[in-house]
Specification:
Elements lengths: L1 H12 L4 E10 L9 E4 L5 E3 L7 H14 L3 E6 L15 E9 L7 H9 L4 E9 L10 E4 L4 E4 L3 H15 L5 E5 L10 E8 L4 E5 L3 H12 L3 E6 L15 E4 L2 H10 L8 E4 L4 H11 L7 E4 L3 H13 L4 H4 L2 E2 L11 H17 L6 E4 L2 E4 L10
Parallel strand pairs: 11-12, 11-14, 12-13, 14-15, 15-16
Antiparallel strand pairs: 1-2, 1-5, 2-3, 4-5, 6-7, 6-10, 7-8, 9-10, 17-18
Length: 383
Amino acid sequence: MRDVLREAYAWYLAGESVGLATVVSTFRSAPRPAGAAMAVSQSGAVVGSVSGGCVEADVYEEARQAQATGRPVLRRYGVSDQDAFAVGLSCGGEIEVFVEPLSRRTFPELPMLMASLASAEPVATATVVADANAGAGTPGRRLVIWPDRTAGSLGSAALDGTVTVDARGLLEHGTSVLTHYGRAGQRQGEEVAVFVGSFAPAPRLLVFGALDFAAAVAELGTYLGYRVTVCDARPVFATTARLPHADEVVVRWPHEYLAEEAAAGRLDDRTVLAVLTHDPKFDVPLLATALRLPRLAYVGALGSRATQRDRLVRLREAGLNEEELSRLAAPAGLDLGARTPQETAVSILAEVIATRWGGSGRRLTATAGRIHRAGQADEGSAF
């Protein structure tokens, strides 16, 4: 969505009406998550995607129609059983897509939103995508929400207040979701459907140990959308020349740097730690600090099984209990048979992804027209 908005904003500034399509909800094995977007310029240029190709042609026509009429529409797409070539999702899932005209008239707050994205300030947008009575929450009404202020309105003070509270909670985790509310803002209502899109700062990936493996992990982490910091106490290794894909390179003792970042509130439950040093004098104090922190998404440490056995002995001697030790992924990564630093980086980040989304890490196999994980039926995404 960020990249799509950046492209669409140039058209917006030129005075165009942009057709913007956003995935607002998904069911079963949808190919793109909520928040995925596609924009169409007045000349017909397209950026982004809502389904990876399944329904793009139809959404494109809806976007052109929204540009022409100035009216938004909520469309639902699912698998087509009667005609394999009809508009539908071949993956078997369903998505809801909100298509709207985007212009200076319909979204006057967009420059403020774009300024926040440029400065990495957390911000969310709440948009009415359906209204049973077409009353106060007319589809297309929007509220922009920051941690300390708001702009715009969904149509009523009560709805604005409830959605603001919900959106700020979602923003802490970078979550985008569709919620139904009552006219007075009750969360259990069914009258008004509001989609909240979160633009939280990029999650952090902290890599400790500035060796070849760190360079590969930093490069892949950046590709996956993380803000990457590489930290090493040895200045000869911790250089930007050796780590060109890292957002920052820090020369510090790792455990001291991590403790300071935690005390400053710069770590959260999306933060990933990859410990690649292989040296107990760095690993043990760093992991002792990390495993006692309450909010981290993943703590992984590279090394052989023999290294891990020795590491556990040292960590127990440092006073860590079994619950704390259970949070450590070591040896880090999935069993891919990796040999090179780049392959090892794929293995580690694959485990991070599986941990984040609850994946099994096992092979996906296609049989009888169905996608499932090896050894178990599964209706989750195969993408």
